[in-house]
């Protein structure tokens, strides 16, 4: 395998930034880290397949169902979307009220 020096690494970094964009790189790195953790845990589980499961794996604990991080983000996004829709409806109602008041002022010169 050829030696990768500083100039080659800089060129590779510039190409990666040009292809994916500066703002997407942290998200991609985070996703890669999560994938590596999942892969590692799956490899560990495959190694344990021949062994007896631990006591923690055999017992269940009563409690709430914990949603995954992705599910949590989706529910948060849905809640934010509903709140934004409510704010937009309120703004439309205030705008309609302001238009009716403006029309009233235009039609009644004594005000």
Structural class: mainly alpha
What does the overall shape look like?
elongated
Major sheet: size, sense and barrel closure?
A: none
Estimated radius of gyration: 29 Å
Q: SSE order, as H and E?
A: HHHH
Helix content: over 70%
Number of strands: 0
Number of helical elements: 4
- Which percent range describes the beta-strand content? under 5%
Walk me through this protein's architecture.
- This protein has about 110 residues and is mainly alpha-helical.
- It has four helices and no strands.
- The chain is elongated.
- The model has no long low-confidence stretch (mean pLDDT about 80).
Outline:
This protein has 111 residues and is mostly helical. Helices cover 74% and strands 0% of the residues.
Mind sketching the topology for me?
Layout: H1 6-20, H2 25-48, H3 55-58, H4 69-107
Can you give keywords for this protein?
111 residues; elongated
């Amino acid at each position: 395998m050829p030696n990768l020096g500083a100039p080659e690494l800089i060129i590779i970094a510039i190409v990666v930034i040009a292809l994916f964009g500066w703002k997407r790189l942290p998200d991609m790195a985070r996703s890669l880290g999560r994938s590596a953790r999942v892969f590692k845990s799956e490899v560990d589980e495959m190694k344990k397949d021949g062994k007896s499961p631990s006591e923690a794996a055999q017992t269940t604990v009563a409690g709430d169902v914990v949603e995954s991080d992705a599910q949590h983000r989706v529910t948060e996004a849905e809640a934010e979307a509903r709140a934004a829709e409510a704010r937009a409806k309120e703004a439309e109602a205030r705008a309609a009220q302001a238009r009716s008041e403006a029309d009233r002022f235009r039609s009644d010169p004594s005000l």
